[in-house]
Amino acid sequence: MNKAIIRLGVIGQSERPWDPLPRKIYEIAYRIGYLTAKQRWILFSGGRDGVMEAASKGAKDAGGITVGILPSLDKKEANEYIDIPITTGLGIGMRSELMIQTVDCIVMIGGKNGTLKELSAAYMNKKPIVIIRGSEGVADSIEKILFEGKYLDERENVNILFADSPKEAIELLVPLVSHK
Questions:
Q1: Which of 6, 11, 21, 107 is the 20 to 30 A CA-CA neighbour of 170?
Q2: Between helices 166-177 and 23-38, what is the axis angle to 10°?
Q3: What average pLDDT does the segment 112-134 reach?
């Protein structure tokens, strides 16, 4: 029997003309994508800009496969590094839920309110989660509010892990998803 291919979901902030993605965050996301492909895992994201595009570019540069779960019905909404654009017509919120349901694990980089919603969905679905410290936004706020230092609440659904680099994030995930 063949070992299943791991599907890593990357969550993080989008980019807007008035709110460009900082270079540091771009580099972290790019490296996550690159290392995901080197593991021979498939990279999933929201398929658009910002962290999603940077991670997708990294995965493509390493010869990987990228999947974008898009909120609209327009394939053109996908960034240029998406191999498989999945159009949903569900809008951003429901599209995020669909992505979380699809993947085996999550890496969170920076982010704002939408990323926080995705983190919560991953937690409720007991997906392994690694947050990159120092990636700004919501990612740098979560650790301070965790229940017992590792859970979003007293249900203790999944131990949220933290990494100081993309390499460490992937290393933390390998034993958590190796049985998939």
A1: 21
A2: 40
A3: 95
Q: Which helix (H) or strand (E) holds 58?
A: helix 51-61
State the DSSP H helix or E strand holding residue 37, giving kind and residue range, or none if neither: helix 23-38
Q: What is the dihedral of CA 14, 19, 24, 25, to 10 degrees?
A: -20
* Calpha distance 135→142 (Å, rounded): 12
For the chain, the domains span 7-177
Q: What single-letter DSSP state applies at residue 108?
A: E
Task: Give the C-alpha distances (Å, rounded to integers) separating 22 from 15, 28, 85.
Answer: 9, 10, 25
C-alpha to C-alpha distance for 56 and 79, rounded to whole angstroms = 8
Question: Confidence band (pLDDT; 50, 70, 90) for 1?
Answer: very low
| Whole-prediction pTM | 0.95
User: For residue 58, what are the contacts with CB-CB under 8 A and spacing of at least 6?
Assistant: 29, 30, 31, 32, 33, 34, 35, 36, 37
Mean pLDDT of all residues in the chain?
94
Please give the DSSP secondary-structure letter assigned to residue 79: -
Q: Are 33 and 10 within 8 A, CB to CB? A: yes
Q: What is the CATH number of domain 7-177?
A: 3.40.50.450
